[in-house]
Design brief:
CATH class of the largest domain in chain A: Alpha Beta
Oligomer: heterotrimer
Strand content of chain B: 25-35%
Number of helices of chain A: 4
CATH topology of the largest domain in chain A: Gyrase A, domain 2
Protein name (chain C): Sarcosine oxidase subunit alpha family protein
CATH class of chain B: Alpha Beta
Pfam families (chain C): Fer2_4, GCV_T, GCV_T_C, Pyr_redox_2, SO_alpha_A3
Helix content of chain A: 10-25%
Strand order of the largest sheet of chain A: 1-2-8-11-10-9
Low-confidence stretches of chain B: none
Radius of gyration of chain A: 17 Å
Radius of gyration of chain B: 15 Å
Shape of chain A: elongated
Structural class of chain A: alpha+beta
CATH superfamily of the largest domain in chain A: Probable tRNA modification gtpase trme, domain 1
CATH architecture of the largest domain in chain A: 2-Layer Sandwich
Keywords (chain C): Oxidoreductase
InterPro entries (chain C): 2Fe-2S-bd_N, BFD-like_2Fe2S-bd_dom_sf, FAD/NAD-bd_sf, FAD/NAD-binding_dom, GcvT/YgfZ/DmdA, GcvT/YgfZ_C, GcvT_C, GCVT_N
Order of helices and strands of chain A: EEEHEEEHEEHEEEH
Distance between the termini of chain B: 18 Å
Family (chain C): Belongs to the GcvT family.
Number of helices of chain B: 2
CATH architecture of chain B: 2-Layer Sandwich
């Protein structure tokens, strides 16, 4: 049983691990379509990632979570200067949310079964290929899920939901082995 | 659990959504110019059809966008979902029959 | 004696593995593979339960999930007993304990059976008719008695120690049922490349093929063919197979629920194994292969132990190796029972006679039976089965021309098998919203047009010939795969099938009988004890619709969902109404197909995993300080910090005084926060809030009040302007999600022209409130040189800076009425900052306080809490916040409604303060107020108390109330009517302390 009072916010079960993500910053960037395209160019990308797609630029990853929103996973240095410069010239909303979320790297051969205990998403590779990112519901917690590899996901939830999420993943991973 | 096609994210399970009531009821541009009766009409009066309804949905636990849908209230079958701001699409008799089935 | 009804060489149980269990305390031996029912029948025991209403002795009539009688409790102890299981599904293991139900003191002698003698007094509608009056008898007398006698088994009283798994999954083709048609369909779909799931409710795949000894497929015994097919399926990577798994609900959009029982058949399961798993399957296509259920015949005594369905006896014989009796009589309306006769004879059971209601049965099987020398009475019926706890004889009688029944003859027997033909199992099809259609040829209902992506195959759509069933399975499986988008080349098997030729047959309704039979107990619905005359009585009393008849008589409403009874009830209603069956229709089948435990439904949602337990970063600190917590929406918040020996009142009084006299520290992290950003941010705020925002300068704050479009207060919070295009909006803890939702709603659907966007920052910032006259002295040294003097940072201002190098948004705001600051810092650094402030506060005797003190402090100042003072019918003016409403703005959400005449009514409930006459009397929150203490009941309510506390600051009690025309009642005496007295109160201003606000502006 997960103990909410401990700080061990990881899961390690046979066939499923959730390792805490280290560091990095997060930005929620919203704007009209042209602005998002402009930002992508400032990142050095040909175009903004399509809906539910992701793209990497330097040490930043852009997740298109909504038509008007790019969620940016950045390194400690934050956003490239070209990006902030560009954003100074167009209407947009850039809000740092580095503290809002915590997350895990999820791995293991029972990964899909474990997540399927919590989420109604169809995570078969044909429906949710590598590179796909979305917000969804895990039990009663909103989460942001990004498939980084066939058997590896990046999951973030709002900070106060982390103990719940870990407890749920731990229980689901145990069940998934039966 | 219904399967609902978000115009932005594709088909997702109902738990990700919340229903927002009847669609295509525009907020009056100048509410203060309305009579009390007209305002009450806007505020409170809604259709409750047995059959096709155009209604708002919000992909609350996904992209968080509102969109509109045409659904048959008898069968919970969706005819179409579409973006906010688009006019209510025409429903062909065939589509209506399929939704009613 | 223990195994005397075992038939050597028959059955699939493992006779080398004896299993010992107890039933009602009696130790019994069965074999691995037995069900509780088969193991008991092997000892000659038919009596397994008492009926629900009349407490009649009952034995199993079926061998499967359709069993209505043999209902037992398994396990023992307050947590582990599972009531209401059917003995025909319970698999035995070493150490299993089972008890019969619905009897006292024991199964053989049951006091409740007196109801049976009183049965003429318990007709349908008995409860409706009897417990009408006197009215006050209902709660005191009738209801307790009815409640005690209602229900089947006894629910466990202690928490369930088991755990239950849950999983969503997806597939191309889901096959419900693994009998011949299901297996064939799964094989065809899998070969086409579809992702296939196939589930069967029993312990083994194969369905009827597990007890069909007569047929051959490709020259194989049917059970061997099953083994070959299952092996082939299991080897395919695109197939998932589930035994002990019931497809119990067919929901909308092809979401189908399965209940997998994982450990109930094991004596000592690994405790880590989930007991059950609930699957929610989104299937592109569903194949329903749910089979058919044999119909009982309705005659007097058809519920006596020893009377059972012919197919059940065949199943017990061939699947479990148990002969259900020594000397059988078979009553049938269908050819399939003749096969049962042949198998019984082969196993050494005497078949005393076969009675066939049909005038001229004629089939190969019929001729075989005649050739075997068995007495067959055609055009004849069962008049009555004799015996109480076990039948000993049965009266068979000819049906006379004109429909009457002639003189009969008694046949000695200990087993009476009945077959009224087959009822296709339409439950899942009906749940899928498909309309059933009456088939006159088969005299039953069949699946009509599909409402969802679904197909029925095999006997559940009226096919009974094994060759036809298998071919149909292949065809349906192929079509399902194709419609799921899998149309690979399929090399379909061609199976050679030899089987009994089955002719037409079947009977619905009550068998003809001699005499009027007003006292005859001929059961239609065994589980709910509904007899043929109950259904007739309902019709006689005027019920016409089958749905009404069902509810009045309760036929088909038991946990078995009318599996064995629906069609017979329909037949009886049809003849009583004089209308053909197809004009009457079937009642709706409800999910679940068979009962599902609460454990399976709740899954992980219990204990720690029921709800997220949201904690702030200050939570560990508060716990070390002995805080008492309370739940506020999903958050856990410190309510007060008691010192040794203090109760809540003492702690709160001390905390309040500390804040008023010196300084307190409070965790306000749970406040909702929204960053409103964009060139149109101020315009957006103008439209959303009742306040005006355009002139709010950067670095300033304002109390924001939000209405819904109906003009009633929805939420409130302080809003700071961080930049011309950036607002830091706060909301109430519980309102955070709703406010963001409402803002997004207007932004996305009404004002798409605005360039403004919303981001939740609730968990980005932790909030540390430092409140009290010494607040500035505590903070000033910590904020890295920031000037927070009253002059540069007056009340209601905000500044960005750092605190010990940590980024900070510092608000000068107060919800206590004292000089106050709210320090917003990144969540992960909050504890660090808190501890730093705590250290700096020690010289000032800084006191941590919780939500209870926060509530008292704000009430002393007359600050409302949305949802406490307001209830969804209060306007800003009602709540005393009319000053916040902009008079200049042309429009905002709620403005038009606020201008409606009703909103100006002087008698509206308005926020006021109340003083009790006795200063130490603290009113109960929620109590009503009246103007005249001498009024007769019912008194006219003119308001209610919304908040009530003892104020240590004022040394007396205070209360806030919403009172009709309250502001015009200053100084009036009102009354709080309590059960035993009237409490007089005086109306006063809601601001009890520092009305001029001097303490804020220092």
């Amino acid at each position: 049983m997960f103990d909410a009072s401990s700080n061990a916010l990881t899961v390690s079960r046979s066939g499923f691990t959730a390792k805490s993500l280290g560091g990095g910053r997060r930005f929620a960037l919203q704007g009209r379509k042209d602005t998002l395209e402009g930002v992508a160019k400032a990142f050095g990308l040909a175009e903004a990632p399509a809906m539910l797609q992701s793209a990497s630029a330097g040490d930043c990853t852009l997740l298109r979570l909504a038509p008007q929103e790019l969620f940016i996973i950045a390194g400690e240095a934050g956003l490239p200067e070209a990006v902030t410069t560009y954003l100074g010239t167009v209407p947009n909303s850039l809000v740092e949310v580095s503290e809002r979320q915590v997350g895990w790297t999820l791995e293991g051969e029972r990964l899909r079964d474990t997540l399927a205990a919590l989420s109604p998403l169809d995570l078969r590779t044909k429906s949710f290929p590598v590179g796909t990112a979305t917000r969804t519901l895990f039990g009663k917690a909103d989460g942001m899920l990004w498939r980084t590899d066939e058997n590896s996901f990046h999951l973030e939830v709002w900070r106060s939901f982390a103990p719940y999420m870990v407890a749920m993943m731990d229980a689901a991973a145990l069940d998934a082995s039966w | 659990m219904l399967l609902i096609r978000c115009p932005y994210c594709g088909e997702r399970a109902e738990v990700e959504f919340s229903n927002g009531g009847e669609a295509h009821i525009d907020r009056p541009a100048d509410p203060m110019s309305l009579s009390a009766e007209e305002w009450a009409q806007f505020l409170y009066m809604r259709d409750n059809p047995k059959g096709l309804i155009a209604e708002r949905w919000r992909h609350a636990h996904g992209c968080n966008r509102f969109f509109n849908a045409i659904r048959d209230t008898r069968t919970d079958r969706f005819v179409v979902t579409y973006e906010i701001g688009q006019p209510r699409p025409d429903v062909t008799p065939e589509q209506a029959a399929e939704a009613a089935r | 004696m223990s195994r005397s009804f075992r038939v050597p060489g028959r059955g699939r149980v493992n006779t080398r593995r004896p299993v010992r269990f107890t039933f009602d305390g009696r130790s019994i031996e069965g074999f691995e593979g037995d069900t509780l029912a088969s193991a008991l029948l092997a000892t000659g025991t038919h009596l397994m339960g008492r009926s629900f209403k009349y407490h009649r002795p009952r034995g199993p009539i079926s061998a499967g999930s359709d069993e209505p009688n043999a209902i037992v409790a398994v396990g023992s102890g307050p947590a582990l007993q599972t009531p209401n299981l059917v003995a025909t599904q319970v698999e035995i293991y070493d150490g299993l304990t089972a008890q019969s139900q619905n009897r006292f003191p024991c199964l053989q002698f049951d006091m409740g059976a007196v109801n049976n003698l009183a049965s003429p007094l318990l007709p349908s509608g008995f409860y409706y008719k009897t417990f009408m009056w006197p009215r006050n008898f209902w709660t005191k007398v009738y209801e307790p008695i009815i409640r005690r006698s209602a229900g089947l088994g006894v629910a466990p009283t202690a928490p369930d120690p088991d755990h239950y798994a849950f999983q969503y999954t997806f597939c191309d083709v889901l096959v419900a049922g693994a009998g011949p048609s299901g297996l064939a369909a799964a094989l065809a779909a899998a070969k086409a490349g579809a992702e296939v799931m196939i589930a069967d409710e029993t312990a083994e795949f194969g369905g009827s093929l597990l007890f069909d000894r007569a047929s051959r497929i490709d020259g194989l015994q049917t059970a061997d063919w099953v083994e070959r097919t299952v092996t082939e399926l299991k080897a395919m990577p695109n197939v998932r197979m589930f035994t002990r798994t019931t497809v119990f609900n067919y929901g909308p959009h092809n979401m189908v629920a399965l209940n997998q029982r994982m450990t109930d058949h094991l004596g000592t399961p690994d405790p880590a194994t989930p007991r059950e798993r609930l699957w929610q399957v989104r299937a592109k296509q569903v194949v329903i292969a749910s089979g058919a259920i044999e119909r009982p015949l309705v005659f007097e005594g058809n519920d006596r132990p020893g009377v059972m369905l012919a197919s059940a006896a065949l199943t017990f014989l061939n699947r479990y190796g148990v002969a259900c009796g020594r000397r059988a009589v078979i009553a049938t309306a269908d050819d399939s029972a003749y096969r049962v006769a042949l198998d019984l004879i082969e196993a050494g059971v005497t078949v005393a006679a076969i009675v066939d209601i049909r005038p001229k049965p004629d089939s190969e099987l019929f001729r075989k039976v005649k050739a075997a020398g068995i007495t067959v009475l055609t055009n004849s019926t069962v008049q009555r089965a004799h015996g109480s706890q076990r039948i000993h004889s049965v009266e068979l009688a000819p049906v006379l021309p004109g429909g009457d029944v002639g003189e009969g003859k008694n046949y000695r027997c200990d087993l009476l098998l009945m077959s009224g033909g087959w009822t296709p199992s339409l439950h899942l099809f009906s749940q899928s919203k498909g309309k059933v259609i009456y088939d006159a040829d088969l005299d039953t209902y069949l699946p009509g047009e599909s409402a969802q992506a679904e197909r029925s195959t095999g006997s559940c759509r009226g096919l009974y010939d094994l060759g036809e069933v298998l071919a149909d399975g292949l065809k349906i499986g192929t079509e399902a795969a194709k419609d799921a988008g899998c149309d690979g080349e399929i090399d379909l098997p061609l199976w050679e099938v030899t089987t009994d030729a089955i002719g037409r047959g079947g009977f619905t309704g009550a068998l003809p009988r001699r005499g009027k039979g007003l006292t005859a107990m001929a059961f239609v619905d065994y589980q709910n004890d509904v007899t043929a005359k109950d259904v007739k009585l309902a019709v006689r009393e005027g019920f016409r619709s089958i749905e009404h008849i069902k509810r009045y008589t309760t036929t088909g409403m038991a946990t078995d969902q009318g599996k064995t009874s629906n069609l017979n009830a329909l037949g009886i209603a049809s003849s009583a109404l004089g209308r053909p069956k197809q004009q009457i229709g079937l009642t709706t089948f409800r999910a679940p197909y068979t009962p599902v435990t609460f454990g399976a439904f709740s899954g992980h949602e219990r204990g720690n995993e029921f709800d997220p337990d949201r904690r702030t970063p200050i939570d560990p600190w508060a716990r070390t300080k002995g805080a008492v917590f309370e739940d506020v929406s999903l958050w856990r918040r410190a309510r007060y910090f008691p010192q040794p020996g203090e109760d809540m009142d003492a702690a709160v009084a001390r905390e309040c005084l500390a804040v008023r006299k010196s300084v307190g520290i409070f965790d306000a992290t749970t406040l909702g926060k929204i960053e409103v950003v964009g060139p149109d941010a101020a315009e957006f705020m103008n439209r959303m809030y009742v306040n005006a925002w355009t002139k709010l300068g950067v670095g300033k704050c304002r109390y924001g009040l939000m209405c819904r479009e109906n003009g009633f207060v929805y939420d409130d919070g302080v809003v700071g302007r961080i930049a011309p295009d950036r607002f830091h909006v706060t909301t109430t803890t519980g309102g955070a999600a709703g406010v963001l939702n409402m803002m997004e709603d207007y932004l996305q659907t009404e004002w798409q022209d605005l360039d403004v966007w919303l981001t939740s920052t609730s968990e980005e910032w932790a909030v540390i409130a430092v409140q009290g006259p010494k607040a500035r002295e505590v903070l000033a040294p910590l904020v890295d040189g920031l000037d927070i003097s009253h002059k540069t940072m007056p009340h209601m201002s905000v500044v960005e800076g750092t605190i010990g190098g940590i980024p900070m948004r510092l608000f000068r705001v107060s919800f206590s009425g004292e000089l106050g600051f709210e320090v917003n810092v990144p969540t992960s650094r909050a504890l660090e900052v808190w501890e730093r402030i705590w250290e700096a506060g020690k010289p000032h005797n800084m006191t941590p306080y919780g939500t209870e003190t926060m509530h008292v402090l704000r009430a002393e100042k007359g600050y409302i809490i949305v949802g406490q003072e307001t209830d969804g019918t209060a306007t800003p003016d009602d709540a005393g916040c009319g000053w916040a409403v902009s008079k200049l703005k042309k429009d905002f959400v709620g403005k038009r409604s606020l201008a409606l005449p009703a909103m100006q009514d002087p008698d509206r409930y308005q926020l006021v303060g109340l003083y009790t006459e006795a200063p130490q009397e603290v009113l109960e929150e929620g109590v009503q107020l009246v103007a005249n203490s001498n009024e007769v009941i019912p008194m006219n309510k003119i308001g209610h108390v919304t908040s009530s506390y003892h104020s240590a600051t004022l040394g007396r009690s205070i209360a806030l109330a919403m009172v009709s025309g309250g502001r015009a009642r200053m100084g009036q005496t009102l009354y709080v009517p309590m059960e035993d007295r009237m409490i007089p109160v005086t109306v006063t201003s809601p601001v009890f302390y520092d009305a001029e606000g001097a303490r804020l502006n220092v």
